[in-house]
Amino acid sequence: MLSRTQRMVLRTLDEAGEPLFNGTLSARTGLRFNSEVFHSLVSRGLIKGHPYELTGAGRAALSDTSQLGKSQ
Questions:
Q1: Fewer Cβ close by (within 10 Å): the C or N end of the chain?
Q2: Is residue 23 a part of any domain in this protein?
Q3: What is the largest CA-CA distance in the chain?
């Protein structure tokens, strides 16, 4: 399960529609530069690269969490 912060990072990347460097991603999310959140998402295969981009697994995870919110 994703934390609220992890979902926020995935949504930010999804909404940007382009890869973002960690400084830009940090500024847009209010997270600390080189945040452990980014590292955990990379480890899980939900984002990749630098600049960071959303992976297919990241989109699926974001979609799954969106569906959970609609059913509640």
A1: C
A2: yes
A3: 35
pLDDT at residue 28, rounded to an integer: 95
Half-sphere exposure of 64 (CA within 13 A, CB side): 9
Domain assignment present for 29: yes
pLDDT at residue 67 in the model = 61
Write out pLDDT tens, residues 19-48. Answer: 999 899 999 999 987 789 999 999 999 999
DSSP H helices in 17-55: 22-29, 36-43
CATH number for position 43: 1.10.10
Please state, in angstroms and rounded to a whole number, the distance separating the CA atoms of residues 38 and 49. Answer: 11
CB distance 45 to 57 below 8 Å: yes
Q: Is 30 left (phi over 0), alpha (psi -120 to 50) or beta?
A: left
The total of structural domains in the chain comes to: 1
